[in-house]
Design a protein that fits this description.
Blueprint (H helix, E strand, L loop, with lengths): L13 H5 L6 H17 L17 H23 L12 H6 L8 H20 L9 E3 L4 E3 H22 L2
Antiparallel strand pairs: 1-2
Helix pairs in contact: 2-5, 2-6, 3-5, 3-6
Pfam family, one: DinB_2
Protein name: DinB-like domain-containing protein
Length: 170
């Protein structure tokens, strides 16, 4: 799978696409999974509930947001890959999701186990898409989007949040 062309996604997602390194998609996806796990495993316990300012997500909440977004994007990828251009895929309220989950009682290892499970399912989905399936366009309401674009966005989204964590949290 090659990087998507600009007509395969809303320009809003360009930042995420730009954060995906060049290379073989399967390798890049697998490396992203490994690097994400390694990154969060190496954050000290003292930083797990840290917020760089009031009202911002904690490190664990950022990981939960990554998990939630992966679930949403994986579903969208499935819709696109199955050629369903009728089902509308509206945006989701990331703050609403974050406000309705409590990770304060969960350990980083528990959250990482959940990430691994979700990412493993996503990996099985995207690595087995055919050349035709990655180009099918889903109805993302404001702009059609392909399974290819969604697969790249998932990688870039994680890279974006890891960059923010490095800059503002650690």
């Amino acid at each position: 799978m090659q990087k998507p062309s600009k007509d395969e996604y809303n320009p809003y997602y360009q930042h995420y696409i730009d954060l995906v390194p060049d290379g073989n998609f399967e390798t890049v996806f697998t490396d992203n999974s490994i690097q994400t796990i390694h990154f969060f495993e190496n954050i000290t316990t003292e930083k797990h509930d840290f917020r760089y300012q009031p009202g911002k997500w904690s490190v664990k909440e950022v990981l939960m947001h990554i998990i939630d977004t992966e679930r949403v994007m994986s579903y969208r990828t499935l819709v696109a890959a199955r050629g369903d251009s009728n089902t509308p895929l509206p945006s989701f309220d990331e703050d609403g999701y974050a406000n309705n989950v409590d990770v304060s009682h969960r350990t980083m290892n528990d959250l990482l186990d959940e990430f691994k499970a979700v990412r493993s399912a996503t990996e099985k989905l995207v690595k087995n898409l055919t050349a035709a399936q990655v180009k099918f366009k889903a109805n993302a309401v404001t702009h059609p989007i392909t399974a290819c674009a969604l697969s790249y966005i998932m990688i870039g989204h994680i890279n974006h949040h890891i960059n923010v964590l490095k800059e503002r949290y650690l």
